[in-house]
Amino acid sequence: QPGDMVVTADIIELTQTPFSLLPDRQSFDCSGKQIVCPRCAAVLVETARRHWPAECRVHGIEQQLVAAHCYGPRLTTPAEALAYRSMGADVLNHSIAPEATLSREIGACFVPLAFVTAGFNDYMDRSRQELLQEHVLPSLSMTASRVALETAA
Predict the structure, then answer these.
(1) Sign of dihedral through CA atoms 152, 67, 60, 121?
(2) Alpha helices by DSSP H, the chain
(3) 58-113 per-position pLDDT tens digit
């Protein structure tokens, strides 16, 4: 639901090309089996639960949610959202790749922090003029930054 914070366990990334790899690399040698670092994810969720608004939920890696990467800034169409949903995506994200795969390629830990600005039903309701829940972004951007900075410290 809009306002929830999500730490996904996996990604669907269909936009990669040979140019998405680090320079002079022709293959992705590391396993994508564990794209998200479980230890960092646990610290992030613990920090978020202290700061995130009580009326919203914090979904951790243990829920095994999947994010689909969609290039922004254009928002996904209802048909695209449905297609990603049928592939197993629980959330759509415009800023998770190539960061996720490049982090793993260099051996760094990766953990995503995202919050929901529109629910699946918001995409499917074609009578709605606006997709995003406008109150969510301004009210949670600072909180998300605080959670990320405190987690990194």
Answers:
(1) positive
(2) 38-51, 78-86, 99-105, 120-124, 136-152
(3) 999 999 999 999 887 788 888 999 999 999 999 999 888 878 888 887 888 899 99
What's the pLDDT tens digit per position in 138-147? 889 899 999 9
Cα 37 from Cα 83, distance rounded (Å) = 27
Tokens of 43: 């610290």
- What the block records as the tokens of 82 is 């449905």
Instruction: Kindly report the length of the chain.
Output: 153
Which CATH number do you get for residue 53? 3.40.50.1580
Cβ-count burial of 43 within 10 angstroms (0-12 exposed, 13-18 middle, 19+ buried)? middle
- The Cα–Cα gap between 113 and 80 comes to 22
Task: Report the predicted TM-score, pTM, of the whole model to 2 decimal places.
Answer: 0.84
Residue 62 lies in domain: 5-152
